[in-house]
Amino acid sequence: MLDLLIPSLSVRPLAGYGEKSPACFLVEFEGRRFLLDLGEEPATGRLPELSEAGHIDAVLISHGHADHVGGLRALDSIGNPPVFASAMVRALGDAPLRSARDLPVRGRIKIGGVEIETGRSGHAPGAVWIRVGGPAGVLYSGDFSREGTLYAFDAPLPARYLIVDASYGTYDEPLEPTVDMLARMASSGPLLLPTQPNGRGLEMAVHFDERNIPIALCDNHIAIARRVLKSHQGVLDDNAAERLSAAVAAAVDYTRVESSYGAMLAADGSAASGLSETLLATFLERRLPVIFTSTPAEKSAAGQAIASGYAHFARWNVHPRLRDLRWLIEIVQPEKILLAFLAESGIDKLRDNLPILPRGT
Ligand SMILES: [Zn+2]
Fold it and tell me: How many CB atoms lie within 10 A of CB 4?
C-alpha cells in the first residue's frame, strides 16, 4: 500500500546511454512526459530514437551545444511540444531555440502541475541542471563542470533518480596542469587551439590573458563574448564579466600571434569549419603546434591530424572528473543512476570506482 504514496516515475534514454551519443532522455513523472534535451550527433547528424517518444508535454533544454539541441529540427515528428530553455541559451541559439519559453537559470517553474527546478551547471553560457518532480523525481546534471572560470555553478538538489554526465568516465586529473602546459607552449611560439566559442573557448581566453600571453580570437569568439557580456546577469560567476571583458579587449590580430608567439583561439573545435579549418592547414604546413582540447571524432580533420602525429590532444576539462561524480552522488543521494554519454565498457569501469552506486541500475 505504501507504494501508492510514491509518485510514479520512469526514465528512458532515447539516446545518450551506452555510448557517446546525443542527449535525449524521456522522463515520465505523475503521468506527464518530458524530454530532457533533444540533441543530434554533431559529426553525422544522427538523431535520437524519436519514434519511441510518444506524446511529449515539454522539452527541457540544459544548454545550447549541438549534442543537446541539434535534434530540435525534428520537433515536428513529436508533435511540436513546447520547448523551455534559459534566456542565454535562447539568445545564442538558432530559430527553434529563439522562440522557446523561459527556463530560469536558477529557480523553479511548474509545467503541467510538475515542479521543475534548475541551477547553473558551470559548463557553458546559460547551462543548467534540471530537477523534475522534486525530491521524488529526477535530477538531470546536463553537462557540468566544477572547474569553470566563467560560468557559475550551483550545488544540485537531492532526487530519487540521477541522470549524470559521465562522459569522462574515471578520468580524474585537474585542469590546472593542462593550462600551465598550454601556456608554456604559447609563450614560446604561436599555438593554434581550435575551440568552441560557446563554451571552453572564452574560458581559455581568460586563462591565457591572465598569464599575460597574447591571444587572438576569431570573429565567432568575439561575437559570442559580446552577446554573453551584454546579458550576463546571473549566468557568469562573480567578477567573470570583468575578466572576460579584459580578455576580449586585450585580444590581438592573428598576424601578430603568427609572427611571434601566443594562443590563437578559433572556431570550430574540431577544425571542420570556420577559421580553425583554414588555420589548421597553415599550421600543419609550417609544422607549428596545434592542440585539440576536446575528443575529436576519428574521421574528422582533427582526428586525422592527430593520427598523423602533426597535431595533438590535451583535454581541457569541461565535464566532471571522477571526484566530481562522487561529490554529486553524495549530494543527490539517488536510488538509481544513469551514467550518460559513456561507452558500455567505460560504464562498468566507472561503476567499480563509485562504491556507493547501487547495482543493477
Ligand atoms: Zn556541452
Answer: 6
Strands 114-120 and 128-132: antiparallel
pTM above 0.70, yes or no: yes
Backbone angles phi, psi at 323, to 5 degrees: -65, -30
Distance from residue 183's CA to the centre of ligand 1 (Å) = 24
Q: In which region does residue 306 sit, left (phi positive, over 0), alpha (psi from -120 to 50) or beta (all else)?
A: alpha
Confidence check: pLDDT of 258 > 60:
yes
Q: What gap in Å lies between CA 211 and CA 309, rounded to an integer? A: 28
Widest Cα–Cα separation across the chain? 75
Calculate how far, in angstroms, residue 143's C-alpha sits from the geometric centre of ligand 1. 5
State how far the Cα of 109 lies from the Cα of 241, in Å rounded to an integer. 27
**CA dist list (Å): 51 to 56, 74, 75:** 12, 11, 12
Establish whether the linkage from the previous residue to 268 is cis, with ω within 30° of 0: yes
Q: To 10 degrees, the CA torsion angle through 305, 309, 310, 311? A: 60
Distance 43 CA to ligand 1 centre (A): 14
What pLDDT, on the 0 to 100 scale, is given for residue 12? 97
CA of 358 to the centre of ligand 1 (A): 27
Residues composing the chain? 361
Let me know if 298 is exposed, middle or buried by CB neighbors in 10 A (0-12, 13-18, 19+): exposed
Give me the domains of the chain, ranges plus CATH numbers.
2-170+319-352 (3.60.15.10), 176-313 (3.40.50.10890)
pLDDT tens digits, residue range 299-336? 788 888 899 898 999 999 999 999 999 999 999 999 99
Grid cell of 295 as nine digits: 575528443
Identity of the amino acid at 273: S
Residue of 144, 275, 261 whose CA lies nearest to 213: 261
Over residues 35-66, the pLDDT tens digits come to 999 999 988 899 999 998 999 999 999 999 99
Euclidean distance between CA atoms 338 and 161, whole angstroms: 8
Buried b (16+ CB within 10 A) or exposed e, 245-282: eebbebbeebeebbeebbbbbbbbbbbbebbbbebbee
Cα 144 to averaged position of ligand 1 atoms, centre (Å):
8
CA of 306 to the centre of ligand 1 (A): 22
How much is the average pLDDT of 258-268? 94
